[in-house]
Amino acid sequence: MTLTNLAAILDPAAPDDRAFIIQLSPEGDEQFRLSYGAGHQRIAALARGLLKHGLNRGEAVAIVAANSADYLLLYMATMAAGLVSVCVNHKLPRDTVAHIMKDSAIRLAIADSERSGLVSALVPTVPMEQIDTLLDPGPFESVAMGPEEVAMVLYTSGSTGLPKGVPLTHGGYLWATGATPEQRPGIEDKKAIIAAPLFHMNGLFSAKMVMINGGTIVLMTSFTARGYIRAIDRQRVDMVTSVPTMLALVMRETEELARADLDCVTTAVTGSAPSTPEFFEQMHRLFPNAETANSWGTTESGPLGFGPHPGGIPKPMGSLGYPRKGIEVKFVGGAETGPTQGVLHIRTPALMTGYLNRETDTKKRLIDGWYDTGDVMRRDENGFVFFVGRADDMFQCGGENVYPGEVEKLLGRHPDVAQACVVPVPDEIKYQLPVAFVVPRPGTRPTEDTLRRFALDNGPAYAHPRAVWFVDELPLAGTNKIDRKVLVDRAVAAYAREGGRRV
């Protein structure tokens, strides 16, 4: 059967009594579980209820809430009803959320009590705690949608101005989900933990990949490192997907890890930030029975860009993989063939048609059907791709280009470093200088001089950090990625306060 609605990916063959979603508290305690049979019924009742509420095909519904089983069900029901699901980052400032409501023409919002104040004065709002009032029990068949019709709108983080709406189509994401099972281990009757916020592509796509394979979603309402460890142990989780910052926090919970048994994990995937061979060694120690992988994707072009080599060549450590079937890539500023480096442009069936109401930004990023990712990538002699850094993050020091991600990977090779973030500070002579914030590995006491010397001995002199500050943890943005803007402000203030240093 050919699917036309993204919501129809929920595996119809999964036994009705199999656990579909197990909802956990931030501490990792089970709150309740929902079966596939009950999940199908509740999605149908919500879809019927949304249409009965007076919403019409193509109109937008916002979800403004913490992670929950009902969040996922509502997300699916909205699309099943032929409506557009808009998952809102509720950690954004109030004015920014108001912009999203207006920009995406929201007709109805569902918001939990803690966050309803962000939207209730702007659009009709149903409390998430009263979502049962929307239910209209009965059979429902997902609305047949055209491949170019919009299924959902996700918004960029807004790190450089207001967030941009990214319309994503039913056809594009049906391709994305359908393309991946052949490339990844089957997860039928397996458990996958999701702790990333559901307003982000990572969490939503991970959930869909479990749904299409009839697995069980172990859903944390919010992430805590201790709760994450307990959840994996108690629920005997098979699959873990996260970002390096989350795993770095987990690795610091030595006492909790000593009490836990994580041998159940067979697949551990990380992405959204550069990872070093040393980091993957730590992952292997954390999950000794797991096959580990580094993933890459963007909201605009799709969630999974790279996979195994078609010729069976083993993937080198640190590589994102080889471009997946159906995906075209080129390296702008580099060579057309062979080993090279440049800004990655990508073309994929999951590519957005353009930013919502942002013609200028669309023209800047979509060029003749290619999406300019803004990511500097390197391709080796076998076609494997490696992440170098964000072109936007690149800065110049004494006329040389410094990519923070490369310096972070270099520092991460030191045995005493658990995590590092490199940012620029202004300098009268060099224009900008790299400085670093470092989270030490538990039980170690590295010094600034030691790490600066390590960087000088193992990398280009111009890129070594002129100052190193040790912190217990790095600040996280709403998507659990490192908040570089916060660290830039801290670095500029600290470097000025200390009178500056040059080597």
Q: Can you describe what's shown?
A:
There is one protein chain. With 503 residues, this protein is of the alpha/beta class. It has four domains: 6-221, Rossmann fold, CATH 3.40.50; 224-295, Rossmann fold, CATH 3.40.50; 319-390, Luciferase, domain 3 (Roll); 395-497, 2-Layer Sandwich (GMP Synthetase, Chain A, domain 3). Helix content is 27%, strand content 26%. The protein has helices at 36-52, 69-80, 94-103, 170-179, 201-212, 225-235, 244-251, 254-259, 277-286, 359-365, 404-412, 448-458, 484-497, and strands at residues 19-24, 30-35, 60-64, 84-87, 106-111, 125-127, 150-155, 165-169, 191-194, 216-220, 239-242, 267-271, 291-295, 306-307, 322-323, 328-332, 340-347, 366-367, 370-379, 385-390, 395-397, 400-402, 417-427, 431-440, 468-470. It has a seven-stranded mixed sheet with strand order 2-1-10-9-11-12-13, with helices on both faces. Strand 23 and strand 24 (431-440) form a beta hairpin. Helix 6 (225-235) crosses helix 7. The chain is globular, with a radius of gyration of 23 Å. The protein starts with 18 loop residues before the first strand and ends in a 6-residue tail after the last helix. Residues 179-185 have low confidence and may be disordered.
